[in-house]
Amino acid sequence: MKGFGEQYNSKKEFNNNSNFSKEQILNQAFKLHLEGKIPEATKFYQYFLDKGFKDHRLFFNYGVLLNSIGKSQEADSIYRKAIAIKPDFAEAHYNLGAILKDLGNLKEAELSYRKAIAVKPDFAQAYYNLGIILKDLGNLKEAELYTRKAIEINPKYTEAHYNLGIILKDIGNLKEAELYTRKAIEIN
What we know:
The structure is a single chain. The protein is built from 12 helices and no strands. By secondary structure, the chain is mainly alpha-helical. Helix 4 crosses helix 5, helix 6 packs antiparallel against helix 7 and helix 9 runs antiparallel to helix 10.
């Protein structure tokens, strides 16, 4: 049997076929996305949206796809829908934070990272990115605390060691800044 994407290429064929479950179609969208078949995956995601399906995984993965092709504003909206369906979806809060940072909305990005951490307290990347946001906002002491937390969770987090070195340098703690910079080099 051909794959679903090969067999059903038009929306008319989608709409006329009831042999496939929502889960099978969703899995095919994910598969096409992972294979880098972006136009085909987009059709599946859009089909789900057109049908009014509510699945946080769909919105999350479609947001990833949209962001990867430079459609950050659309990805922002799609991530918000994933969060509306599943408010405790740490990865969606995290990805939304990354998009908001890229769009220059640092205060809202900060809130998204804080929500990701509240949902998933061991989310080292969220602590790290929150540290970057706080540094960019000029809150060096809090940036230091969150970056240290990222390192506590993942002691081999090269980027966190390096950025902690930069934060400590900016604070004026040059000796400790050098230690963390050397540690980043050692890990890498």
